[in-house]
Amino acid sequence: MFCFQCEQTANGTGCTRGGVCGKKIDTALLQDELTSKLVELACAAEGKPHDAETDDFMIDGLFTTITNVNFDDADIEALCSRGDALIRSYGGSCPFAAADVWHADEDVRSLESLLLFGMRGMAAYAHHARVLGKEDPEVNAFFYKGLASLAKDLTADERLALVMECGRVNLKCMALLNDANVGAYGKPEPTPVSTDIEAGPFIIVTGHDLHDLKLLLEQTEGKGINVYTHGEMLPAHAYPELKKYAHLRGNFGTAWQNQKKEFADVPAPILFTTNCLMPPAPSYSDRIFTTSVVGYPGMTHIDERKDFTPVIEKALALGGYAEKREMSGLNGGHVLTPGFGVDTVLSVADKVVDAVKSGTIKHFFLVGGCDGAKPGRNYYTEFVKQTPDDSVILTLACGKYRFNDLDLGTVAGLPRIMDMGQCNDAYSAIQVATALADVFGCGVNDLPLSMVLSWYEQKAVCILLTLFSLGIKNIYLGPTLPAFVSPNVLKLLVEKFSISPISTPSEDLEKILGS
Ligand code: FS2
Ligand code: SF4
């Protein structure tokens, strides 16, 4: 096997003898086979009309291969068989071996990986929009175009152009998902969320799929069961159509990499709607339930009929805590406040603009992205702690658990930390930055705004490509740079976008604020 798609890849170069994430060699080989089928199907179907079944397969096939999504060989084999049938229905195609990509010339491999991993990330967003009935023909078409390109003999410039196109199309995909979420659940609004767990039966829901959460809330209503979000599900509390459920009580735990510790002795089932799933320890494996594209051998899977009865029965059987438990975040805080989406932030745009003009707010930082298990990620906690009092921190995705319970007070009457939502809510951050640039009559790169990002898996890759496609410069990226960015491709990204690896919080802050 060879896999280097995530930040924790072995030795910073590639997993070859099983994944650091727990992915087995056979599973990695099957994921390569699935990717090969996706490329073959894309070649067969490119330029022809394709139906919803084929689009579903493309999107879910890509999503399945994202880090920490599916470890179940049976699921991947079933997808490969579906792929074979679809390829035949489009008249067949030339054979393609995804594994050849890993052994190609390092710059070709780098550009092809950037595109493939970017598409994997974008597929997750397309999937979430799709379950809410929203799709975009341009987004769907790009999966075929991008995947088919992997089988073509292209120049480096042509490959780079496709990488940038992936970023552009992903902006549309994130906009689609934002509209789908707002259409289904209303505009997010700032909402205090408790980290305490009430007495009695409860269910923990993790991952990113708000539709699954909504269905679970409907099915648990009136049953004496509380529902707690975990990880990237925290922003659900901010949506009017979700927070109206009184039994959506609070948030449990922190980011994904702490799940083994946090789930070990909790008397409740845990429902995984997407990544990031870690191989469960025997102490809690009978309490893990998966749905949608998530899979792990031996875990109970809730199929597309979305009957959550097994999860509900488990919650009732376990009974929860006998008494209320006072929990806290990593820094000891007890309340988290998601809901600072684009509409909330822009509703106080006048206040923000006045505060910038008067010098009350001197700088904005977007400190966002993935959390992860490798050491070095407390950089982001320290960075936020060290930001000056006259600055605002916008944040999103699971990396925020490093600091989202800190009380940094207010500036110009606004909270200093504003949680914009999940990773896909990078769309909100981009909208806010663009709106501010319009008001000030400058480009986004001229705003007093710095992006300090953390990455782990492939959704972070597509967001990064989107930021590049918008011409956004001077991004600080950590905790380490992707192994799939070759020295030449990195040189190019540094020349074009002045991207920097993070160093230390004080050094980076000095560079940002001193310049
Ligand atoms: Fe975090 Fe994992 Fe959100 Fe990533 S929960 S690293 O999937 O997309 O962020
Ligand atoms: Fe290794 Fe990451 Fe691939 Fe898992 S997803 S096999 S940890 S590179």
Notes on the protein architecture:
By secondary structure, this protein is of the alpha/beta class. It has three domains: 176 residues, Substrate Binding Domain Of Dnak, Chain:A, Domain 2, CATH 1.20.1270.20; 126 residues, Rossmann fold (3-Layer(aba) Sandwich); 178 residues, Rossmann fold, CATH 3.40.50. The strands form four sheets. The protein has a six-stranded parallel beta sheet with strand order 4-3-2-5-6-7. A six-stranded parallel beta sheet has the order 13-10-9-14-15-16, covered by helices on one side. Strands 1-8 form a two-stranded antiparallel ribbon. Helix 16 links the parallel strand 14 and strand 15. Helix 2 packs across helix 5. The protein binds FE-S-O hybrid cluster (FS2) and iron/sulfur cluster (SF4). FE-S-O hybrid cluster binds next to loops.
List the helices and strands and how they pair.
Layout: H1 25-45, H2 52-64, H3 73-89, H4 98-102, H5 106-131, H6 137-149, H7 156-185, E1 193-194, E2 202-206, H8 210-220, E3 226-229, H9 240-243, E4 248-251, H10 259-263, E5 270-272, E6 288-291, E7 300-302, H11 309-318, E8 335-336, H12 342-347, H13 349-358, E9 363-369, H14 378-386, E10 391-395, E11 410-411, E12 414-415, E13 417-419, H15 426-440, E14 449-454, H16 458-469, E15 476-478, H17 487-497, E16 500-501, H18 505-514
Parallel strand pairs: 2-3, 2-5, 3-4, 5-6, 6-7, 9-10, 9-14, 10-13, 14-15, 15-16
Antiparallel strand pairs: 1-8, 11-12
Helix pairs in contact: 1-2, 1-3, 1-6, 2-3, 2-5, 5-6, 5-7, 5-16, 6-7, 7-16, 14-18
The chain binds FE-S-O hybrid cluster and iron/sulfur cluster.
